[in-house]
Design brief:
single chain, 395 residues, alpha/beta, 6-stranded mixed beta sheet, 15 strands, 23% strand, binds P-hydroxybenzoic acid
C-alpha cells in the first residue's frame, strides 16, 4: 500500500471520528454562548394561574436585574406543559436538553411533573430548580434538584399548634389526594394529636375535576370545631364557595389550613366569606417589609394589577438563585458546580430571610400565621406571628 493512500485514509478516519464525537457529546458551554434557562410551567389548564404567576415573576426579575450575568447573556425559553401530564413535562425537558442545550431547567407547577422530570436532570447533569411543586421528598429524587418554594411538612405544623391553643379540639382534615396533600395530612395529624387534639375524620379529594360539595357536607355532618384544608393553589375559590354555601361557618366550624387555600391570586375574588380563615404559610402579599412592598408594587404595575402569590416568589427567588450561582461559579461553570454554588446561599427575599439548606437543597425560611382580614375593601392574609428559619422536617 502506498504511503499517500494510507495517510489519506487516516485523515478521512480522523475526520469521521471527530464528526461522530461532536454529534454525540454536548459541547462544553463557553462564555460566548447564551446561558439558556428552560422554564416549564402549566400555562393552560386548571393550574394555569401557577404558570402565569411564575412567568411574570421571572420576567420581572430579569427586567430589574438585566439579562447579562458573569458575561453570559441569559436567555429564557418558556414552555407550557398544561399541568396534568407528567410525561409531557418530561418530554419537554428532554427536548430542551438535547435541542436547546439549556444550562438550567426550572418551573414545575405540580409534584407529579417534577418527579417525572428528575431523571432528566440527573442524566443531563443540569440544575433543576423546583419553583412551586411542594411535596417534601422531591429533592431526594435527583442531586441536581434545588427548591425555591416550600414544602407542606415545613408549613403545616404551626397551624396545628395554633389550633390546639385556640379552642379547637376536634378537626376534620380535607386534602387533595396526592403527594403534597398526603404530606399536609400526615403532618397535621401528627402535630395536632401530639398536642392533645382529636382527628374526627380524614377526607381526601381527587386532583382531577374535584367537586367539593359532597366532601364539605360530610365534614359538616361530623360537627368538628374546625376543618383543616389543603388544596393546590387554583382550587381555593371552589372550596371557599362550597364552605360558604353549605353553611359550615354558620354551623360554628372554622376553616383553617395551609396558605394554598387563601392563595393571594384568588383571595380578592373570595372576598368576605374568607374573612377569619387562619392559615400558616411562608408568603403573604401583605408581608410588611420594604422588600415586599417594592416587589408587590412592581409586580402589580407590570401585570395589570395582578397580585403576586406564593408561587411567584418561587420564580423570583429561583431566578435570584440562578443569577447568584452563575456569578459565584463563573461563566463556564458545569451543572455540578452551579448546584454546589447554590448550596448554603442566603438572601433577603420579599417573603423574608431565606437560604438553601446545603444538606438537603430545601428552602429554610420563616413560616407565618395569618388571618384573612378586609383592608380598604380587599381581603388580605394578615400575618400575626412568625416562626423563624423553619426547615423541612424531612419526614
Ligand atoms: C404540588 O403539586 O406540589 C403543589 C401544587 C400547588 C400547591 C402546593 C403543592 O399550592
Amino acid at each position: 500500500m502506498n504511503q499517500t493512500f494510507v495517510s489519506a485514509r487516516r485523515r478521512i478516519l480522523q475526520r469521521f471520528t471527530a464528526t461522530v464525537l461532536l454529534g454525540l457529546l454536548p459541547l462544553a458551554a463557553s462564555a460566548a454562548d447564551p446561558f439558556k434557562i428552560g422554564l416549564i410551567l402549566p400555562l393552560t389548564g386548571p393550574f394555569a394561574s401557577t404558570g402565569k404567576q411564575i412567568e411574570a415573576a421571572v420576567r420581572l426579575y430579569m427586567a430589574k436585574n438585566g439579562d447579562t450575568v458573569a458575561g453570559r447573556k441569559v436567555e429564557l425559553i418558556v414552555k407550557d406543559d398544561t399541568g396534568l401530564a407528567p410525561e409531557t413535562t418530561k418530554r419537554i425537558a428532554q427536548e430542551l436538553v438535547v435541542q436547546e442545550k439549556i444550562s438550567v431547567l426550572a418551573g414545575f407547577g405540580l409534584t407529579p411533573l417534577a418527579l417525572a422530570t428528575a431523571p432528566v436532570a440527573t442524566e443531563a447533569k443540569v440544575p433543576m430548580i423546583v419553583m412551586s411543586a411542594a411535596t417534601g421528598m422531591i429533592p431526594t429524587r435527583s442531586p441536581f434538584i434545588v427548591r425555591t418554594g416550600f414544602t407542606l411538612p415545613q408549613v403545616t405544623g404551626p397551624i396545628a399548634e395554633w389550633a390546639s391553643k385556640n379552642k379547637i379540639k376536634r378537626v376534620v382534615t380535607m386534602v387533595t389526594d396526592y403527594g403534597p396533600g398526603l404530606d399536609a395530612e400526615r403532618t397535621f395529624h401528627t402535630v395536632f394529636k401530639a398536642v392533645g387534639g382529636e382527628i374526627v375524620e380524614a377526607i381526601r379529594t381527587p386532583l382531577r375535576n374535584p367537586d367539593y360539595a359532597p366532601f364539605l357536607q360530610r365534614a359538616k355532618d361530623a360537627k368538628p370545631d374546625a376543618l383543616f384544608v389543603f388544596v393546590p393553589s387554583g382550587e381555593g375559590l371552589a372550596v371557599m364557595k362550597q364552605f360558604d354555601e353549605r353553611g359550615l361557618k354558620q354551623a360554628g366550624i372554622r376553616l383553617i389550613g395551609t396558605g394554598d387555600v387563601t392563595d393571594d391570586d384568588l383571595l380578592e375574588s373570595m372576598g368576605a366569606p374568607a374573612v377569619g380563615v387562619v392559615t400558616s404559610f411562608h408568603y403573604s402579599a401583605a408581608h410588611d417589609s420594604p422588600e415586599n412592598k417594592a416587589y408587590v408594587d412592581s409586580f402589580m404595575k407590570a401585570n395589570n394589577g395582578m397580585r403576586p402569590n406564593f408561587h411567584s416568589l418561587g420564580g423570583y427567588d429561583g431566578m435570584h438563585l440562578i443569577y447568584e450561582a452563575l456569578k459565584k461559579a463563573g461563566p463556564n461553570a458545569t451543572g455540578e458546580q452551579l448546584v454546589e454554588a447554590m448550596k448554603g446561599m442566603k438572601w433577603m427575599s420579599p417573603r423574608g430571610p431565606m437560604s438553601i439548606d446545603p444538606a438537603t437543597r430545601q428552602t429554610i425560611q420563616n413560616v407565618y400565621l395569618r388571618e384573612v382580614k378586609m383592608v380598604d375593601g380587599k381581603a388580605w392574609n394578615i400575618e400575626f406571628e412568625t416562626i423563624e428559619n423553619v426547615k423541612d422536617p424531612g419526614n
